[in-house]
Amino acid sequence: MLKVGIIGAGTMGSMHADCYSEIPSAKVIAIADTRIEAAKRAAEKHSAQALDDIDKLISMKDVDIIDVCLPTPMHKENVLKAASAKKHVFCEKPIARELVDGKEMIEACKKAGVKLMVGHVLRFFQEYVIAKSIIESGAIGKPVMIRSTRAAGHPQGWSNWYSNVQMAGGVPLDLIIHDFDFLRWCFGEVDHLYAKGLTYANVPDVDYSLVTIRFKNGVIAHVEGSWAHISGFFVKLEVAGDGGLFEFDSRTSSPLRVASKTAKGSGGGVEVPQNPVIESPYTTELRHFIKAVEKDEEPPVTGEDALRAIEIAIGALKSMETGKPIVFPLI
Amino acid sequence: MNVRIGILSFAHMHATSYASCLKQMDDVEIVGIYNEDEGQGKTLSQRYGGNFYSNYNKLLDQKLDGVIVCSTNADHKKYVVAAADAGCKHILCEKPIATTVEDAQTMIDRCKANGAELGIAFPCRYIPAVINAKLALDDNSIGKVLAAKTTNHGRMPGGWFIQKEKSGGGAVMDHTPHVVDLLRWFMKSDPVEVYAEIDNKFYNMDIDDTGILTMQFDNGVFATLDTSWSRTKSYPTWGDVTMELVGTDGVISVDSFAQDIDLYSDASGAHWIYWGDNMDFGLVNDFVASVRREKPFQIKGEDGLKALEVAIAAYESAKTKSPVKI
Q1: For residue B222, which residues of chain A lie inside 8 Å, CB to CB?
Q2: Complex-level ipTM beyond the 0.85 threshold
Q3: Is any Cβ of chain A less than 8 angstroms from the Cβ of B323?
């Protein structure tokens, strides 16, 4: 039984706690958050200990794994502490705000001999797994042009940190980092990219990016990321090859809709589409991490993968700032 | 009195659509048809009415009220200039206006010198969803526009479209003008810089079949446009015109041809059958109305030139791997 300590009891932290409860060989024994009430809420459900002191959790003797669900700028410090306490680390995406920080985190974990996995959860979403397998099957021939969309309203978080580009890195680093990682997983390394966006435009509660990536293998990808779509969260993927095309849109592939006059959070009669699967992709992701720790294997998403994902996001931010195409690698 | 129309060349397939629209109008007479291919031209004149002319100057001598030019892109200049010189006062030219900026400018100048109105066939301005999107925008429903994501996908058309000397370019030349025109029309703003990734990996021919343009407009808006011939033979429809406009207060999404019925035929496969209004009828009807009223057509030669400039800058950007100023 692997004992897990979660630091950060926001949306992701409390969701991860729920996920671990589905994994027989793992148990959350403590959850820490400087907001003790949040820690208590998440911990209570799983009979775990609630702490307001993150350092104290990291130094707990019987904790094997630290799961870092803190805002991006706090990742590095805490991953380094966890590594030096010889704890295996699961870190939410993006690994860090800056490339040098990500690199330092990877090296620290390597040196400490602990596993590091980063939460690029798209690799565990069934539609994306199947999409990759369709590409590999050759059903659409050689892939040529990819279009992806990840759109939502503007997120609200601790201290409104999502709006602070220095902390969160806006849509490129926090939202379409998912698509960047997925595309790199499918098509390999980036040759160059060009991006336009509103990340530096200071529009209240709106961020939006359009990024065109040219991969080294010649594939072109157009990635849209939006925190401007007040209609709600959705994703789209289209892969066109020289022998066919496939596409999906989460708005039309939703198998269940509930329209209720009384449902909570539906705003009164608003139909809420649902996309239920037996195992949440977040649980699948953590199950793979637990297995990698147990069997002493390399986790399915490595620190290096996470570093390359933020490299693409940082390249996009750099292109927005300079108005120029950015040639890779950056590190 | 009937409006007398002549059609110069059916090289572009849109000509048959325009001709059948004209045929539906009670007060329009297709006086004559000129076509490079005589056999095809005679068949067309039987189908749509009017005489077949093997010499376009002879057709232009027939006191035409309006001329529609649907030749290859490279021949637009030849026919438009001939029509203007022959004294024709209303000319509707298929897009792109020409294959070079110089040709386009010559066409505009010659029409002006002869007192002829040069209009460009951008039928997308007549799609009801597009018109309503513009009304919503004008109504300030999404506040200030900040960004746009657009597509004009299609199938690889083959024929002269893939012969550069006749088309001026592939997917980027073919599919840049429509949406650039819509964005200019919507925002009353011009593109000032273009970056483009262009390639030919769908068909590996000597002409581009793939393009992603990123444009900066003079009102601060940025926009991308996917011009690719990425709709494969097995895809249920020919392509699309889509626009997503992101504003300070909301988003407008246009999927121009989404009014369709999904057909699954054991004999012919899957097809999305469009049932919405015919944009070509709107275009041709408006052209005829402007001829009848002796008024300028709403889409001018200059609009065609502006759209062409973007396509040409996109090719330049792909070549130099850097943004190109317009």
Answers
A1: 196-197, 210
A2: yes
A3: yes
Domains observed in chain B = 3-121 (3.40.50.720), 125-277+308-325 (3.30.360.10)
Q: Which residue has the tokens 């317009």?
A: B326
β pairing state of B28-34 and B3-8: parallel
Mean per-residue pLDDT of chain A: 94
Q: Are B79 and B8 in contact (CB under 8 A)?
A: yes
Percent of residues in chain B assigned helix, strand, coil, to nearest 5: 40, 25, 35
**If one looks up domain A122-258+309-327 in CATH, what number appears?**
3.30.360.10
CB A91 within 8 A of CB A310: no
- Give phi and psi for A222, each to the nearest 5: -110, 115
Please give the residue of chain A at the shortest CA–CA distance from B227. A145
* Interface residues on A facing B, Cβ-Cβ cutoff 8 A: 140, 142, 144-145, 147, 192, 194, 196-198, 201, 203, 206, 208, 210, 212, 214, 218, 220, 222, 224, 226, 228-231, 240-245, 323-325
Q: Quick check: B117 and B127 in contact, CB under 8 A? A: no
- Asked if the model's pLDDT at residue A268 lies above 60, the reply is no
- Which of B149, B195, B210 is closest, CB to CB, to A194? B195
pLDDT of residue A163: 84
Answer yes or no: do A203 and B248 touch at CB < 8 A.
yes
Residue of B nearest to A139 (CA): B234
At residue A262, does pLDDT exceed 90?
Answer: no
**B240 shares contact with chain A (CB less than 8 Å):** no
What are the tokens at B249?
A: 């207060």
What is the rounded distance in angstroms from the CA atom of residue B182 to the CA atom of residue B187? 8
Domains A2-119+283-301 and A122-258+309-327 share a fold: no
Main-chain dihedrals φ then ψ at residue A217, nearest 5 degrees: -85, 5
| In chain A, domain spans | 2-119+283-301, 122-258+309-327
How far is Cα B112 from Cα B118, in angstroms, rounded to an integer?
Answer: 8
B146, B151, B232 member nearest A245 (Cβ): B232
Instruction: Give the containing element (helix H, strand E) for B309.
Output: helix B301-320
Selecting from B224, B230, B246 the residue whose C-beta is nearest the C-beta of A240 gives B230
In chain A, the percentage of residues whose pLDDT exceeds 70 is 97
Helix axes B177-187, B301-320, angle to 10 degrees: 120
Strands A326-327 and B117-121: unpaired
**Distance from the Cα of residue A194 to its chain's centroid:** 22
Strand order in the sheet with A88-91: A49-51, A26-32, A2-7, A65-68, A88-91, A116-118
Which residues in chain A are contacts of B322 at CB distance < 8 A? Answer: 324-325
Residue A187 Rama label (left phi>0; alpha psi -120 to 50; beta): alpha
Nearest by CB to A229, from B201, B203, B251: name it: B251
**Domain A2-119+283-301, CATH among 3.60.150.10, 2.170.120.40, 3.30.200.20, 3.40.50.720:** 3.40.50.720
Q: Facing residues of B262 across strands?
A: B272
- Per-residue pLDDT averaged across A208-233, rounded? 96
> Is residue A135 scored above 60 in pLDDT?
yes
pLDDT at residue number B295: 87
Give, as one character, the DSSP assignment of residue B300. B
Q: Full-prediction pTM beyond 0.90? A: yes
List CB contacts (< 8 A) between A324 and chain B.
Answer: 322-323
